[in-house]
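Incident log, structure service

09:12 report received: a user says their structure output differs between two submissions of the same chain.
09:20 pulled the input from the user's history:
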Amino acid sequence: MKFIHLADLHLGKRVLEYSMTGEQSHILGEILRVIGEERPDAVLIAGDVYDKSIPSVEAVEMFDGFLGRLAEMGTETFIISGNHDSPERVGFASGLIDPSGIHLAPAYRGRTEPFVLRDGFGPVKLYMLPFLKPAMVRPFFPDARIDSWTDALRTAVDALEIDPAERNVLVAHQFVTGGERSESEEVSVGGADNVDASVFDAFDYVALGHLHRPQNVGSPRVRYAGSPLKYSFSEVDHDKSLTVAELGEKDSLTVRTVPLKPVRDMRRIRGTYRELTDRSRYLGTATDDLLQITLTDEEDIPDAAGKLAAIYPNLLKLDYDNARTRSGAGAVSAENPERKTPAALFAEFYEKQNGLPLTEEMMAYVEALFEKIGEEER
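09:34 re-ran on a clean worker, output below:
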């Protein structure tokens, strides 16, 4: 039985105020193309469908169109809510929609009935657990001791009453201990949201969402599909993909990935202002990629962002790497300021802020400027 495993669509997301709608619309089209080629028995979407619990109209319409195409293709699709989603909104009208082959996990109520799929080796029981916190599990198990996230998930999984002799698949959205995080994910202080992978021992495949880098945790049985797009500059070296998991007979699993190509990549570039505006350097490159630019000039370039945006229209972040920034210079204060001229105070401030003294030419300009200001005041 073949599954295509997706997660963390984050529809409606903005990266540094840049709307990812165009990129998301393109990547959903790429996903549909791969689904058409692979012809899976089911598509698993492991949470964080939307980027906000109250998604924008644009995001909802985009997902509606995507599900409509999946229904037209006759593809069974199983969807859970993640920590960014509202489980009630994602699960709305799930009972009515089920006959179309689109299965939406309702908000957690203490018990989850499996869907039963069949192939030549017999039944596969598929369970859906939306994102869970200990506080969401305790009300349904008042006699259970639930002190941690692992306790909560173990309690919820035990309640499924899984038959380990059968083939069992779980769709979940949690942080499993050992997974590698990115900056674009919500992080609990001290790793309090860790769930031990042993909780999932009874499953033949666990389709996880929450972490944006595609990765296995411990073994291919427990896997994050990752997000289909890069959502922070900490992800620039990620190879985005969707996961294809195939179950044979009991204890037989193969996992592979299919690359996803964005309409625009997310990259970091660096150099001096002169280098980055040199036509011979940028000509022929993808200047419309989503970029973080690091300037290595020792002096700040006036209106650097505006000037660079004329060449790199999707410049999302600009910073400097030079002697000043490497020294960690921050707030500075002068010693005995009442005994120093304004020009001397400025020179002291400049050196502490930038890690370099004013040149003789710069100092002469500053002294002349303060002298002019003084004359105007008089």
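09:41 both user submissions now match this output. Likely a transient worker issue. Closing.
09:42 reviewer note: Residues 2-259 form a domain with the Purple Acid Phosphatase; chain A, domain 2 fold (CATH 3.60.21.10). The chain has three domains: 2-259, 266-321, 337-377.
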